[in-house]
Amino acid sequence: MLTVDKLKEFGANTDEALERCMNNEQFYIMLVEKALNDDSLERLEVALNNNNLDEGFEIAHSMKGVLGNLSLTPLYDIMVEITELLRSRTEMDYTPYMQKAKEVKNELVELSK
């Protein structure tokens, strides 16, 4: 089961996130779980594999906003890097970034079990 303590150990800035959620832990956890069940990371990978940098940017930018609002710092930091590369439409192999993002998301998913 996902808890604020587990998220803090993961590296989330839970104090900041809880402040955004009016200190409602249950609401915060629900939002984090909703983000974990979102398919944006998979859609981003498809866009990048298809070299669709415009769509990739839109997805990455949206994810960055969600992860930032939830203060899920380890995953947010990766998404900031991806977003900035895509903002300038940098053509490159994004595989290492995506692998890292998936690894970090999987760590977070494991915390929720």
Ordered list of secondary-structure elements with their pairings:
Layout: H1 4-10, H2 14-20, H3 25-36, H4 40-49, H5 53-69, H6 73-87, H7 95-111
Helix pairs in contact: 4-5, 5-6, 6-7
Features:
0% strand, 7 helices, mainly alpha, 113 residues
Provide a brief overview of the structure.
By secondary structure, this protein is mainly α. It has helices at residues 4-10, 14-20, 25-36, 40-49, 53-69, 73-87, 95-111.
Could you walk me through the main structural features you see in this protein, from its secondary elements to its overall organization?
This protein starts with a helix and ends with a helix. It has helices at residues 4-10, 14-20, 25-36, 40-49, 53-69, 73-87, 95-111. It is mainly alpha-helical.
| Mean pLDDT score | 96
Coarse shape: elongated
Low-confidence stretches: none
Percent of residues in beta strands: under 5%
Give the ordered list of helices and strands.
HHHHHHH
Helix content: over 70%
